[in-house]
Amino acid sequence: ETGRAGRDGRLSHCHLLFDSTTFYKIRSLSHSDGIDEYAMSKFLNQIFSSGNTMGCICSFPKESTSRKFDIKEEVLLTVLTQLEIGEEQYLHLLPQFSVTCTLYFHKTSPQLLADKDILLRSILNKSEMKDGSYVFEVPRVANDMRITMNEVFDRLQKLKFSGELSYELKDPAYCYMILKRPDDLNALSANLTKWLSEVENSKIRKLDAMFALAYYAVKGCKKTDGCSGSEHTPCIQKRIIDYFSKKEGTPDDDYCTPLRKSSTFLQSDIKVFLQSNSFAKFTPRAVARIMHGISSPAFPAATWAKNHFWGRYMEVDFPVVIEAAKAELVKFVGKGE
Fold first, then answer.
1. CA geometry: angle at 120 spanning 114 and 124, to 5°?
2. 325 close to 312: Cβ distance less than 8 angstroms
3. Which secondary-structure segment (H or E) carries 97?
4. For 29-41, what is each residue's pLDDT tens digit?
5. For residue 195, what are the contacts with CB-CB under 8 A and spacing of at least 6?
6. Which BP terms does GO give this entry (predicted)?
């Protein structure tokens, strides 16, 4: 981590703390934002579902959608943003709102109020009765009235101040309007998955380069170019300059990491893990995250960190664990388990 010393122009010193265990942990966490193409495809199908009409307000609750697809909320937003500002503009993102509203009437009966107020008439028509209260989805009413969700809330606020009703909001959601439907949803899914993978791989390469620099300063420096004792400014500066002078994507054998590319017991441990947790629906990435000790929306640390295999294979390269999980899941499903 970098500090702020030296910004005033005076002499400052940076202390580099080297610990390979921390490196393994940070590198594992770099895989927490990844999405498999299968999950991406299902998510896009929800975004562009036939019930979502072009030009109308669409929404999906952040928390439940995140758990459903095992994708972090901020990654869901990243995908939506790319669909808005990418090469093709498929969506127009709207402000985030809590979209489920529960109405409580206090004075005039709902029907009498609805006779005088067209908005309340729409709300009553699109509400469900729960425990004597009216529950409705704000986007449905806004679309019915051809107004914005802000206008719905403004009208409800006026009725609240008059003492006629009160309301509660829940289910914070991402809201958007569809401007264009993809010609090929599978191709779009593949492209978005590839793009996110490239972002992830870029973060990994930078982290590996930092580890290699730290490892060289601590373990490999011959102290022939001005370094002495714990002072390694010359060799660190040289390697930083070398790093930035290389073309992006150029492989460098010096930037290697101590991650293992295989493990004797990985395959058998995944098999045991799947058998002992047959109640859960895993993807290869979900299994790999658990083996690396990475929390995710569908498999949070609060529950899964108690598992015997949590974080056991943090020192094995993440893609290797995914491939092993994929092979075992194929066998597992093939047996009908």
1. 90
2. no
3. strand 91-105
4. 999 999 999 999 9
5. 82
6. double-strand break repair via homologous recombination
CB 152, CB 142: distance < 8 Å? yes
Phi, psi for 167 (deg, rounded to 5): -150, 155
- Note the residue count of the chain: 337
Q: What is the DSSP letter of 150?
A: H
Tokens of 327: 């092979």
| Residue 268 tokens, joined | 């058998």
Contact 266, 292 (CB under 8 A): no
Q: What is the mean pLDDT of residues 64-72?
A: 96
Show the 3-state SS of 124-144.
HHCCEEECCEEEEEHHHHHHH
Question: Please, are residues 98 and 173 in contact by the beta-carbon 8 Å criterion?
Answer: yes
- Residues 305-322 have pLDDT tens digits of 999 999 999 999 999 999
d(CA 213, CA 239): 7
State yes or no: pLDDT of 4 exceeds 90: no
State the virtual CA torsion across 165, 169, 174, 178 in degrees, nearest 10: -30
How do the domains of the chain map onto residue ranges? Answer: 37-182, 199-257, 265-334
Q: What are phi and psi of 250, to 5 degrees?
A: -70, 125
Q: pTM of the predicted model, to two decimals?
A: 0.84
State how far the Cα of 238 lies from the Cα of 88, in Å rounded to an integer. Answer: 42
